[in-house]
Structures are given as C-alpha cells and as structure tokens.
Amino acid sequence: MNNNEILYLYDAKMTNPNGDPDEENRPRMDYERDINLVSDLRLKRYVRDYLLDKGYDLFVRKMDEKSVTAEGRVKQMKDFSEEAILNELIDVRLFGATMPVKGDNKTFIGPVQFNWGYSLNKVELLESSITSHFSSDEKAQQGTIGKDYRVKYSLIAFSGVVSGKRAKKTKLTESDLELLDESMKHAIPNLATRSKIGQYPRLYLRVAYKDSETILGDLRDYIRLEEKVENIRDIKEVSLDITDLVSLLNKNKSKIDKIYYFIDERLEIKMADTVGKLSEVLNGFELVEVK
C-alpha cells in the first residue's frame, strides 16, 4: 500500500451540512469570512453509515438503534484480538480507533484522515421557525415552536491523505479504498435525512502514488472557484478552475500511479480559461472512474 491524496467536493442547497450543538444546531461557520465549515467526523460518519448499510460491521456504530460507548462496544465483541478487529471492522482499517479496556487498551491510528471541510464560496444562512404538531407536555394545547437553520448554498471542499505506512499496520487493502471511493460518491445522496437532503457530490479525486513517501499537500490550494453570478445558488452558476492542480500533478507525474475519480456532469471545469472535460485535461494519467 502506498500513499494517496484525496480532493472531494460536494454542495449543499437549503440544508444543514453540519450542525453545531453549541450554536442551537446552526450550520458551522467561520463568521469572519462567511465560510461554511464541516468537520472531518461528519464526513467519516457518512462513510460509516454507507458501509453499515452495505452490510459491513463497524466499531463505531449504534447497536439496536441505540448509541453505545466505546467500552460498551468492546464488550459486545466476541473476539478482542488484534487480528479479529482488523479483519472484521473496516472502519478501524480505514479510520483507526481507540478501544479502552482495563489492562488491554488498543489504539489503531487510521491511515485515512481528512481535514475539516470548508466552503469555496461565501455562504448565507437561512433561519426559520418550525412548529411541531406535538405539545411539549400533556397539559399544553399547542405544539412547540423551534428554529430551523440552513445554508442557502455551499460548495464544500475536503482534502484527505491515505498513509501507506499506517495502512500496513491496520491491514488496509486496495479493496477497502475502492469501497471508500464508492462511499464518497454514493453515501451523501443515498443517506439523506430531513436536514441533509439537498447535498450532492460534485468531484472526487484520489491520487495514488508509487511510494509511501510522496505527499504534495492540501489539493484545495490548487483549485479556484469562479462565480458567474452574485450570491450563487446552484452548481451551474460556478466554474472550477483546476489549472494549478493539473500543473502540480504534471510536475509530479513520475510519482503518480493512478488517479481515481468521478465528476458530476453539471460541474464546469476550466483549464487555462478553457472549459473542458476532466478526463481530457488529465489524459496523460492512468484514470480509473469510480462507479
């Protein structure tokens, strides 16, 4: 297993990408810059939920629809050996885990890690009141009134790294990474809830290197969003300039094995001021399209 780096974009329209419990569940924001934020844990949860729905067992999961502590989850495991943990639990192979048990704590550092996501555009929040049909107690005659917070439009970008050296320690396989690719494409739209509906993946790149040393850096630094209108509300109202990203990849072409990708056809890609297809601007690389 060698190093990989990931670039992932999805958008959110009239939804709450990641509520902050300390802020009445408002979408997480950098208010100084009007930038929408999404934690890496939120993204990993999408992946875990998708894998669980596909029938894979996980360490971080609910049991019988109830939340359990790490200690409680360990007690439910029939075999607590390292071999059994890594063979049976794909989320430990991907993201690692800390398993606290008296006299036998186990810590696995996950090879797959993401930075916090942030929006490439400035984001406006929508606040509205919602009324429940159920009263807060049996004596009340009317339903309760609460607040509902959503972003009007946010194009969110994540970067990630797969450590080849740590992958060996958690027994991460190429098949596991292909499942991660699949999850990144399908998890968010397939597992939508009331607060999350309106989110769609737009771009995914996993750059697989030929060694376990190469890291080029945060790939978000090499893309630029161009807004066709003020106050964008739809993916068709932007272009993504990847000129610098393609230049970076070309300079390091000898280090790159393959590029795994998907792109939404509605996302316009620009290269040196020319609109084109992603597969065309990356035609010098071995490309694997994620299905």
Automatic annotation (TrEMBL):
Pfam families: Cas_Cas7 (PF05107). GO terms for biological process: maintenance of CRISPR repeat elements. InterPro entries: Cas7_Csh2/Csh2, CRISPR-assoc_prot_Cas7/Csh2. It comes from the Bacteria. This is Type I-B CRISPR-associated protein Cas7/Csh2.
